Amino acid sequence: MISLKILRDRIKSKLLKIDLRDGFKTLAVIVTIFTILSIVLFGCKPETAVLEKPTTETEEEAFKIEYPVTVTDDVDKEITLTEEPEEIISLAPGNTEILFALDLNEELVGVDNFSNYPEEAESIEKIGDAFNLNMEKIIELEPDLILTLKGMEEAVKEFENFGIAVYTLDANNIENVLEDIEEIGQLTNRVEKAEELTSEMQEKMDEIKTLVADVSDEDKPKVFYMVWNEPIMSAGRGTFINNLIEQVNGINIVADDGLEGWSEYSLEKLIEYNPDVIIAPKSLAPTPETITADERFSSIKAVLENRVVVVDDDPVSRIGPRIVEGFKQVAQALYPDIEF
Q: Disulfide-capable partner of 170 in 74, 192, 267, 319 (CB 3.0 to 4.6 Å)?
């Protein structure tokens, strides 16, 4: 479904182009605008609102962004670009995956050291990581746009001092990820591609949610996502992991216990809440035995019933298009008898 924010900005850009002295020539544009408005006002459902491939020059223009364009990022900062960016830098692997998914690999001139997907990202200039950025190299590349994550405020200030536009991502739930993709599509003149991508992602996740929609509250499995085991750490309220668990009808015991963010969790609490399922990333536990063989966890239901599941790190933790894969892996961990 096209976000209201994108529709509003697109309609605004069209209206600004209308020359009142030449109204008849803009009739096609007006028709296009009211077609978009009808979708918003009459609340078409995603399955009935079909986005047709443009067939005329006027329809093609509806997908083009008129610069300057302004969006608001995840830290409530407005970013304005006066023209389509030609050189872009990504400072996080998920950002890099978004740019590739939007067919912006030719514009991508620099990436962080951990950007390794898709394979083509390996050949792009590396500019350090969040803890050790090569500022000299970044400035030398003369980017028009930098995509970063929250927590790099000092670097962002320096980039802005050089007149570089910076979009900061800080998605704590799936809806935020889809919004970020759409806004990056706006900034980079990839609106149609962004809408196609987010619609496809939403459709796949909706299919998974439908399969678990009828699970009663009593049958929802209690879940513990083990971020680390020494000390024991997990993901509470306000984290992307918690959102994934809740979206597939699971109960995150850490969030249920009232904890927020990425926090330590006591062994006593873990045993007390006695989760049905323990999920761990491969970086922590290459196999379930890493956890099941640990005597500390031997009395926990998930261990006793062999419901310790290892998931791939990147699709679950990277805020990008592959969250659909992570979504499916978490759902499969909670409901192994359902074919997703």
A: 74
Alpha helices in the chain (DSSP H): 4-17, 27-41, 57-61, 93-101, 135-141, 153-161, 174-187, 191-211, 240-247, 253-256, 267-273, 289-292, 301-304, 313-317, 323-334
For residue 264, give the CATH number of its domain. Answer: 3.40.50.1980
How far apart are the C-alpha atoms of 174 and 205, rounded to whole Å?
A: 10
Residue 336 Rama label (left phi>0; alpha psi -120 to 50; beta): alpha
How many domains in the chain?
3
Mind listing the pLDDT tens digit for each residue in 207-248?
A: 999 999 999 999 999 999 999 999 999 999 999 999 999 999
Q: Is residue 339 part of a domain?
A: no
Q: What's the whole-model pTM score?
A: 0.80
CB contact at 8 A, 114 and 136? no
Q: In this structure, is residue 244 part of a structural domain?
A: yes
Range of the domain at 162: 67-211
Q: At what angle do helices 4-17 and 191-211 cross, to 10 degrees?
A: 160
Same-domain status, 47 and 175: no
